[in-house]
Amino acid sequence: MNNKDIDFEKLLYGGNVTEEEMATRQWQIIEAAIKVFAEKGYEGSRTSDIAKEAEIAEGTIFRYFKTKKDLLLGILFPLIAKILRPMLLSSVENVMKNENKRSIDKVLILIMLDRLTLVIKNKELIKTVAIESLYHPDLLKPLRADIAPRIIETINDFVEKNIALGNFRDLNPTLISRSLASSLMGYIILKGLAPDTFSLGSDEDEIKNIVDILLNGIGIIK
Amino acid sequence: MNNKDIDFEKLLYGGNVTEEEMATRQWQIIEAAIKVFAEKGYEGSRTSDIAKEAEIAEGTIFRYFKTKKDLLLGILFPLIAKILRPMLLSSVENVMKNENKRSIDKVLILIMLDRLTLVIKNKELIKTVAIESLYHPDLLKPLRADIAPRIIETINDFVEKNIALGNFRDLNPTLISRSLASSLMGYIILKGLAPDTFSLGSDEDEIKNIVDILLNGIGIIK
Amino acid sequence: MNNKDIDFEKLLYGGNVTEEEMATRQWQIIEAAIKVFAEKGYEGSRTSDIAKEAEIAEGTIFRYFKTKKDLLLGILFPLIAKILRPMLLSSVENVMKNENKRSIDKVLILIMLDRLTLVIKNKELIKTVAIESLYHPDLLKPLRADIAPRIIETINDFVEKNIALGNFRDLNPTLISRSLASSLMGYIILKGLAPDTFSLGSDEDEIKNIVDILLNGIGIIK
Amino acid sequence: MNNKDIDFEKLLYGGNVTEEEMATRQWQIIEAAIKVFAEKGYEGSRTSDIAKEAEIAEGTIFRYFKTKKDLLLGILFPLIAKILRPMLLSSVENVMKNENKRSIDKVLILIMLDRLTLVIKNKELIKTVAIESLYHPDLLKPLRADIAPRIIETINDFVEKNIALGNFRDLNPTLISRSLASSLMGYIILKGLAPDTFSLGSDEDEIKNIVDILLNGIGIIK
DNA sequence: TATGAATGAGTCTTCATTCAT
DNA sequence: CATGAATGAAGACTCATTCAT
Fold first, then answer.
1. D182 contacts on C by Cβ (under 8 Å)
2. Residues of A in contact with B172 (CB under 8 A)
3. What is the mean pLDDT of residues A184-191?
4. Concatenated DSSP letters for D25-84?
5. CA separation for the pair B163, B158 (Å, rounded)
6. Which of A201, B107, C132, D142 lies 20 to 30 Å from B214, alpha-carbon distance?
7. pLDDT reported for residue D2
8. Burial status of residue C93 (CB atoms within 10 A of its CB: 0-12, 13-18, 19 or more)
9. What is the distance in angstroms measured between the alpha-carbon CA of D8 and the sugar C1' of E17?
10. Distance between CA atoms of A42 and A138, rounded to whole angstroms?
11. DSSP structure class, residue D87
């Protein structure tokens, strides 16, 4: 496989992108790669380790991915199929349908918990893409071109709608989007770096506090 | 040099830890390493690249660092000398001296701008330590043991003082510390990932907005 | 392979230790190593030379021997299989069966010729083990522990039997064993160092003279 | 220094070849080299180790010996000055003067003890020359050309004289010389390899036994 | 199609040798 | 003359990739 073979458009919005469409072997290899890459980094990983993790012969990897680099690009496939696509499709719409019936803090908590779950479930994959994209800009290219704009658009829609509804202050929507993202990212990263210091309770309790601060700030209301 | 030779205690609080104490050659190599590591990652970097960057012979590296791994550990020295030490010593005290005379938003803006400057000036070094510590836990060991606790303590002191002063809400101090950190980290990371989307103005203007949201939240005050 | 994998016990006394038990490639490499080590010494040999001698790629060596040092230890395998084992099993018994029917000088000549043939056929291997064991004591460890005692025991049995039979003088058996060994070693070494001076005839003629002197001395019988 | 600078002729027979003639530094280096070479072999030795052993700077070695190889050739100087020259000059003549007054066994014991002492006192040097000459034939060239013939000649004279005197059997003198050499070499080597097995008493007692066997053989006199 | 032995370019690292001080 | 920092060629060893089976 080769990243050129990935039709991101179809992948994001196509009807039935299931694992069946990708050869079982390919998934097997990609999943092993995600695990090993997360543990040792792309350059620090050995194709022999990946083969062992996938319980196949080393040579078999190269029947499905021409080079090790293609294997790195290959993990974009599950990134989109398992993370970005669900992020766009599933939750936001579902949550927003009920938006009027719920207060904004409940909505934010639901959305953030949903994202948090998705991130935690796929933390190895996200870790690898996040880090390796810093060294391999071509990893980001398909994301930047096709996917990031839609994610940003979706978030912006959500923010603008809530500004209009009087749930958010009338700030630059990007500022608010960034705050939403920062709050969640900060929680995840700091919990990862120093769990002893920064882990205060269950994810649900934590998210409630985060949303409280996000909405109301840390300052005294004067 | 060897990381065991670094006296982190002295480094953090000692009187005069200047570059003079470390052989010029060693600094030259470390600085080249920081640059190359930031560009290609530790595993993706070649000692020959580092030598070229430092404009010395490859063999010379190994007169100062027994192994490539020691070179990675060697960048902890400038991390502490150039970033963590200044973070602890310089700004907080200076800012806090004037704290009573300034409103909290001004103080936060000054602190955050100060940190932001420090981070931007050393972004290569920070990037490398942040990433490689995920793959080489021994990189974090000295930080975790000696330095992280002091940083957290300093931040907590600041937060608790401001809670007492009525500048911050009476929340769990860790929650507030985390919000402070998240806001800044989020700004830096998102600006790095998608400058087109997330860069809205000068750093100073951005920080003002961030502090506004941090203090007052994104929600409508009811 | 690794020297720990060698079961010296089985190697010495096991039924069928043939080259088939060791991968062909391994033998190919070991034989090349013996040749190159004998020519340039262990430290003076390059793994690239050994690969060229074996007509394989350099990397292939390391599929079979983790390090160059393991390759040195690997030559113990043929040392035992091709030299020490035959020395213990074949000749002595065969010769001793006929001992009573032959005079002692004939027996000694047969034994010494047999050993000489074995040594000459394997002189590269013996040279390398003899020399390198002076610098790598771990090379001797397995020999000293398992094998040397048996060889000495076999020789002592032979000597003591012949003392009892009235063929040898009633001296300390070790003295006699040492004389036997010295005579043969001296011949081989001096012939190697200065063939022009010390090579007087065919090996068979030489051995006859050596055994004559060994039995009767160089002095005049008074 | 360079081996071409050594005047072996003068060295062997010259009146006053003392250490004073060679720069003290040179001796210091050579002696360190002998020690380190004996321990690790020529190829296994580092010039830095030799410098440390000699308690000088590494660069200083190269003021006296253009290359490491020249340093190896340099140890021929003390080989000749301290071993071969004394072997030729001192003992044989002294012993032979008294030859008529002593029985041949006493003479042999004295000669062998004398040689043995010389060898033991210089075993590091001899070990290195013996081994390295197998890998660097040029080490032997000066010895073969100038020195070995004289040694052989001296021994042969001794042997032939004793044949004439009726002390030795009328065998090929080379056979007898070889037996003399083998007996001593065998004793030294076997004692070195397996002291537990082959060391039976004081050197003097051992030599007496060796000379007994050498003169009278191990067989029963019929 | 799957395998894994073989490959050899590319790495880190060593160390004899040079030379400015 | 002595030093030892710097050099870079050369070595052991790794590992992505190929290919015969």
1. 182-183, 185-187, 190
2. 200, 209
3. 94
4. HHHHHHHHHHHHHHHH-TTT--HHHHHHHHTS-HHHHHHH-SSHHHHHHHTHHHIIIIII
5. 9
6. A201
7. 44
8. exposed
9. 28
10. 14
11. I
